[in-house]
Amino acid sequence: MVLSLLVVEKNKMTNCEEISLDSRPPSYEEIKDKNGITQIILRNLRGDTVRISLYGGQVLSWKNEQGDELLFMSSKATFKPPNAVRGGIPICFPQFGSRGLLEQHGFARNRMWVIDDQPPSPRTNKSKGYATVNLLLKPSDEDLKVWPNKFEIRVRVTLSEDGNLVLRSRVKNANGKPLSFNIAFRTYFAISDISEVRVEGLETLDYLDCLQDRQRFTEQGDALTFESEVDRIYLSSSDVVALFDHGSKRTFQIRKQGLPDVAVWNPWEKKAKALTDLGDDEYKKMLCVDGSAIEKPITLKPGEEWNGQLEFTVLSSC
Ligand SMILES: *[C@@H]1O[C@H](CO)[C@@H](O)[C@H](O)[C@H]1NC(C)=O
């Protein structure tokens, strides 16, 4: 139902919104941030941009052609080890949450990733107007001491010609034994105000409430709205979820494959105050809606590979 609604909106949008076509070809640029960490800036033909840091393999920014930021980034975020960056799209791997020996949400989000050039592939496509980068993380010797599992995680970040942000991920078991993991693409959407948004596509699903020891509940039939702290894992959702923002007249559509669950998080006032890397009022400007595989870990045989994909589209209502 959500899907058909959005298709209509998208068609409507192309008729009523003027898209300023800029003749610069799509581009790929590498820069260093103030800590000397490499960032990649992708730009498509239309002028949308995505900025990615090799620290965490993390998308930090996604802007439309008008320069509006679509992802939330905390004003107090730190961009260097050992902290994870509060905003954008941190990758929670190989676990979600803080169970077991591993650090909260695993270690992928605070390790240095590399650009994966094997096999070499073009970074931009002039005829199709998109730009892309392949990122790779393998465990260090230190990581293997804490979590003795050899793996390769690859994420291909693409900014499509029509401005969609696409994350294609692959995890390969490089062990001689089975590999089990959780994964979540924690996505901090930038919103006008938490009281102005609703999420559709999670109605009537079962969820685990992380504020109540992961007890299982069932969601009501209405779209989700927010008036207090939320930290939930919705189980086995359909492949399309939408975040409507009435304040900015913007809709984010999340399409996912291989990622059955959807984690939804907003820390609200009290927890925001307790988080040193989030401004006291900034919880109003963010909502995390994450494509994830949490309830049932993904298990791979030796040499086996898992694939997942997330595609974010932003639609304006006019
Ligand atoms: C551009 O993208 C199209 C569609 O994905 C592909 O068929 C073509 O080979 C690409 N061109 C280059 C130069 O990579």
Automatic annotation (TrEMBL):
Q: Where does substrate bind?
A: R86, Q104, R109
Whether Zinc counts among this entry's keywords is no
- Keywords in alphabetical order, please: Isomerase
Q: Does the keyword Transport apply?
A: no
Known catalysed reaction(s)?
alpha-D-glucose 6-phosphate = beta-D-glucose 6-phosphate
**What are its GO cellular component terms?**
cytoplasm
Q: Read off the SUPFAM superfamilies from this record.
A: Galactose mutarotase-like
Q: Which Gene3D superfamilies match?
A: 2.70.98.10
Q: Which family does it belong to?
A: Belongs to the glucose-6-phosphate 1-epimerase family.
Provide the protein name.
glucose-6-phosphate 1-epimerase
User: What's the encoding gene here?
Assistant: LOC110722645
